[in-house]
């Protein structure tokens, strides 16, 4: 029986999944099983993982009808025979020492959850928020402290957390299959409060491939309103879980702050777009605002009560919501409320520093459009292109080397990945 089970949901990732599996098969800690759950893939992803399965007895392939990433991960959890479970996305990679570091941490600390650091691939495609989010400090939490969720850089990505399988079975923790976006966040909001011991380590063990979406977006406003809708659905699922587990009434102030930070600024941004440009989102904006009020006043009234008693900007926001509800009109997040909440989150000094930084950044972007590119920037641009080409070559080489290894062992060409 392997000590670590690594679960990979596989769907239309034939370009990436071989390199991912290369990184898992090359782990310095070898007592692992690699569970590839093929979730109704329409490309040659299954052929790739089947070739790896034929070459390495630690690779297991499960095929199922398409049900989404949560469904695939749940199938992997149920099939896992290891004492510990790790999650890897098929377009990402693990550091070769990841499993060893994770296992050693479990052994030394007797933790039920170990969360580690990660970095973007390529590093320059990340951003300040993502870099901070993926950076974890070294700290041990005995039981649950709200700081684990609300102060640490500990979520939302589940591939940064390894879990003792016993915890998942004991508490019946699985991915919510009704959530298509943000399922990691819902999972973490159950995982951490129910873990008897959680250890965060600063080791960077995961390489997160930043795949830029080249499709044409309709507008920033449309993207923001879609984000709000998704975040409200995520919040609704988390509140339902916390109510069922008796957690919501223990930490209502923290949850109100988290909810407001999760949706408030995007709602305010869409309101500004709608007021200035009339981008046709009035109905969707009103629908999102009404859904937020439903969450605070009907689904989780503990948040309303906490907000009214907290004082300061939180109380002002909840009172404003309550007044809109009593009048039967959609709630509007004013600039005063948005700025007040941002200032409270960051502190006045940091808030004004950020404001100044944003204006300077906008000024620099404007200058870039009219001034010639300096030599240093051109050099940086060329180096980035070289790195992108190296990463692309790595993907292609992985498929070709897989074909060579397969042919060498079985003496036939099964999938024909040469030159791709």
UniProtKB/TrEMBL annotation:
InterPro entries found in the cross-reference section: Glyco_trans_2-like (IPR001173), Nucleotide-diphossugar_trans (IPR029044)
Pfam annotation, one family: Glycos_transf_2
Keywords: Transferase
GO molecular function: hexosyltransferase activity
Glycosyltransferase 2-like domain span: 5-117
CDD domains assigned to the protein according to its UniProt record, in alphabetical order: Glyco_tranf_GTA_type (cd00761)
Gene3D superfamilies: Spore Coat Polysaccharide Biosynthesis Protein SpsA, Chain A (3.90.550.10)
Protein name, as recorded: Glycosyltransferase family 2 protein
